[in-house]
Protein 1
Amino acid sequence: MSTYLPEPFRIKMVEPLKMTTREERLQYIKEAKYNLFGLKSDGVYIDMLTDSGTNAMSDAQWSRMMLADESYAGARSYHRLIEVCSDIFAYDYFQPVHQGRAAEKIVYPLLLKKGQVSISNMHFDTTRGHVGLAGARPVDCVVAEARDTENFYPFKGNMDTVRLEALIEEYGVAQVGVIVMTITNNSAGGQPVSMANLKEVYAIAQKHKIPLVIDAARFAENAFFIKEREEGYGDKSIKEIVREMFSYGDAFTMSAKKDAIINMGGLIGIKNSAEFYEQVKGLTVPYEGFVSYGGLSGRDLEAMAQGLLEGIDEDFLAYYLGQSRYLGELLQKAGVPFQYPTGGHAIFLDAARILPHIPYYEFPGQSLAVALYTEGGVRGCDIGSYMLDPDPETGEQPQSEMEFTRLCIPRRVYTKSHLEYVAKVIVEVYKKSEEFGGYRIVKAPKVLRHFTAELEPVK
């Protein structure tokens, strides 16, 4: 087993945690209608629902917040953020927004028309939702290796480029409004995309004159995986790798609540189109606020600028990705199925293999997430069929390519002993997995239902 890397920081402030009883948790999850998003955080011991906005900021980030300029227009905090973004991503235009889905709300209606398709290595939930809200249809095109959760492949997040070409021919170039590359590929298990694959997909997009948008929520982790695994990048800096990655795209949307290590914020980046930037600004003002704050305070802008710099620090990335690897090795030793190798930000338990008696339409990923909470106070979430909204035309429940239960690791929050506790809970649940049943949805919105749906156990 690999050594757990010491934290590249020391702790100067703590937040108390309280363990609840199993009886209390059974009542809490029932009151939440068996939706993990409906739980009160005070009833959660280890919160691995998401790594989005749940990270611990550094002393430098808090210090920068005290220096923030809260001017409505033209604040120096905005200009500092733009300078940092220009240095890291080497794009021409940047627009701050309040989070990643706000970026998608602005960008995708500008690129997609009703009846078109968006092709991605895999759309994540909010991207999928905003593609649908634009009247288009999301089509996933990940490599087959992503579905093999047992064996090692270095870049399971890649786009299947042969199928991509076939899909473009099948739908017709005019019907493909955008190609989306999600890095890392969250729905595939936080798996990275290789530089070679990015380059090949971008060449296909350029050949057909289809815009390529990068979903950049976890760009820094993807860059670190490239440095580790792809020939020719071992001696390059993370920033050098990031710059090349983004050269193979026309624009990006980003939830900065992940790799920028902040609690709120997002970004839109545009490489060389002043016309597209003007369109983005035109929607930012009514949706988010004036262009130089984009729905954020000056404090948020300063924290984002500093967090982007800290998020590409190689020592931090080695430690952070090492946390998921350590947890994965504990599970591997106990024989628990998960997406192997581990992704950057989370462990993705293979719920289909852990709960083979639960069909996809009774949501094994959700069932496993509920079990982990009731048995040990660990909150995760489904990344599987439950996350997929019904087909808008037929109303049928789609079947996900993978049925995962995701356990995210917030940055700079939990320690080695916390992860060992989580592993213990997972192993205990795995040993009695046949005791857990499926769930049915009794109430849900039409779009992004998994956030607020109400469920009940299948009897």
Protein 2
Amino acid sequence: MSHTKTENRESFLNFSLKGELIKAIKELGFDHATPIQRKVIPHLMSSDQDLIASAQTGTGKTAAFGLPLLDLTITRDTNVQTLILCPTRELCIQITKDLISYSKYVKMINILAVYGGAKIEKQIKSLKKGPQIVVGTPGRTKDLIRRKKLFVGKIKRLILDEADEMLSMGFKDDLETIIHATSKKKQILLFSATMTPKVVAVTKKYMRNSLEIAVARVNRAADNVQHLFYMVQAKDRYEVVKRIADMNPDIYGIVFCRTRRETKEVANKLMNDHYNADTIHGDLSQAERDDVMGRFRKRQLQILVATDVAARGLDVEDLTHVINYNLPDDDEIYIHRSGRTGRAGKKGVSMVIIHGREIRKLKDIERMSGISFTKKDVPNGLDICKKRLYALIDKIEKVNVNEEQIEPFLPYIYEKLNWLDREKLIKHFVSTEFNRYLSYYKNSKDINVEAYEKGNTKRKKRNRRKFFNSKKSNRKNKWNKRKRTK
């Protein structure tokens, strides 16, 4: 037991990394290595064997491959030595930022991000300065190779990050073109949250004698995240999102939908209903995406509606809620989604909206992940009105009054409201903010569906059918018996 404890607290000092790297990561608050870092860093530092790692975002994989490749980079050589490929612009920028922060004290190191949606001329100019490490999205990387501006024929390491996403987004041909342009002697490191058939096909085609490792998430999502599910009819999913938002005035979360079309529909409904929401999806221009993501990071938006692919690279620490509008097709994706909340020791809530037939899939996620879902009733109108009213009263009580600024306006306000006594004034003031909830939820219905209700209904129908069939059979037998007697 003591051996495991020591191993789980292994220091970065044990990996013989350069002092400049150790100094930088200490400043970043890195103390002890995560499971993937303990496996990948020593391997990359001492071996040129290919590596296949099953690892999700949140396991510390950027530092796992980033620290050793920075240590191994020959700074006096201005050829591209490491190429890192990832699925989205946001993730590309995030990885580059991380590598730059790790190498803060390393002199003469040059790291460049190349991605679509930005001017290619600027990236071509930066390539002429001789970056040793290039982080790129497949489309832009292939384009730069084709234009003979990015030379990858001498790279020593190729890192495929989030390989499953790159392949699911249709980058297979781009990846193959890039791999063919690289040196045959390179080391390949592949990281993927799920080992889909497409990922396995790539590993078999391009990787030989690979070391395979698998690690669980390190962020304490299981401890800090409460997993809830609401069971309603499919047509009531949007109503659940509305009621959750109304019950949580300070919500700061992501609503995950399965398709691009669904994200647009849900986001448009939320915005039309005056919620502080927006969406990211594939039809947005890069400038529009940047605008939405920037506003969300600054908390100018409370609710972001997105698909899993669109949300890649969006790393936000303080999410209070993750709402699964649909259950994802892959059980592991749920773990990935829920891990976006409850970070840095804070508490978070991951919610799933399901209908009766999906209860079995929920049980599969529980078995696979070791987490436990709690069934919650969708709040009713009375609950929501009470919560909003008390939140409003708290806000009024705690508001900071600037006597100097408000002073010039008070005579008019006193004169205007002089006819109201204290009780009426309070009622008028509260109703200004509160009436829309009262009117909306006045005749709201209970939209909860009991677990297994559909199964019970089917069972009742089946039993009723059996009963009538047996009565029918008895009548038939009596008739045949009467005929034989005659």
Protein 3
Amino acid sequence: MQQKYYLEGGKASHKLSSLIDDVSSVKLNYSVLKDFLWFSTLDPEMTFYEGVYRLPYGYELNTNGNPVEVWNPFDIDVDYSMSYQEVIDGVRFYIEKSLKKLLNQDILACELSGGYDSSTVYMLARKLGSDPHVLTLAFKDSNADERRYADAVLRKWPSDKVHRIDADKIDYADRYNMRWNYKLNPHWPIWITFSMLGPFFDIAKANGIRRILTGQMGDHLFLGTKDGLWSWLHMGHPLRFAKELSYLPHPLRFCLSGAKKRLKSYLKPTIEDSKALFVSTLRYSTLLEKEMIPKPTFAELHTDHTFCCADKKQMLLWLTNSSFHMSRYSSFGRALYEQEGIEHVSPFEDRELIEFMLSIPPQYRYGKGNPRYLHAQVMKDLLPTELQQRRKKAEFSISVWQQMATIDHDRLWEKPVLVEMELLQKETIRRFQQAYKAKKFSNREFQMYWRMINIEYWYALNPYLDKSEFPPNPYVLEST
């Protein structure tokens, strides 16, 4: 399931750098940058470079260098004759089969956050006879700290090769700074921070580790959000909405709370009545009230952006057009592969596992108020009790705040390239900057501000882009 990039004319590679190393400079794709800034996502076939594209999953290049569809996951039918036990046994079988393919390296490591996915990968690897290094982070912040769950896993499967990093002591100012981020991965503006995982990079190099196993994308196979159900009403499918609703444990409570929330958003004043639904759905906050909402380059992103707890089509968005693409291809794992050849892989990417998950009857995905109920049942014999009873995911924004604290925000926004490109107004940036200093951010505002910062750094530090039209941010160049 490894991504391929290609140029107009047919040249293709798994490494984006190898396609443009022979080109003196490439043009920035402004429409892609705009989509990323405002919506944290982009067209699944595009990159930030003009004339450089990616093949979506399910596609290959033919002998003429043109994309050809070889696999369409939407064609897989749900097998409603499947029993619940057949589902449990099948999921376990395909996860183990996928993992066996990845255990053929002599020196392996497993990331162990303490979540369902990373714990599953580590425990199954041990059960299958592997003895990998363990990479784990410790946070003092209660919202991010998952030590109790990781420790429960390690009590069940002890290891003498555990590398525990104190996340609060990571050197964001000098060792793992923004320059380090974009030296490791110059092609994609990041949307979290590589620096949180930077010590893993050094541990892998010091111990000769060439493959790191991760639980990435388990969410996309097992976890769904109930809010995604409302997309069926937005798209005019009330019967489908009712069917999906029947899988929830408290459908009436869900409808009442959701209707109240959406009624408030629809009654908010908007710039143009004809765009009321669009603006009330996509506008981030009052911090952007005076900013003209840019039109997306393609509408499909914003009608099918979420996925719900049971529907196959919604679950498949990470294969086609969701914001998953942005997180995946700007990820730490992609950067490790591009620059160092260290694989950062997940058994949840396996095509056979995905095909089986797509054939599961939707009523088996959600149970007893736990959106990970199916996963918990599949791993019931291995997951510690503490993990089986877990309901909430950790929240890692503390690492972003720590890295943001190393930046001189006043200097950064003296000559922002975002304003020169007319992607934002100077007054909008000033409002975000004030909100940062006061720490009065909503989660979405915080993510928007972090994207703004990363675009400034990425553009200035990218060695491939033609910057003759817009000079990069002088503070970024001086500070690095």
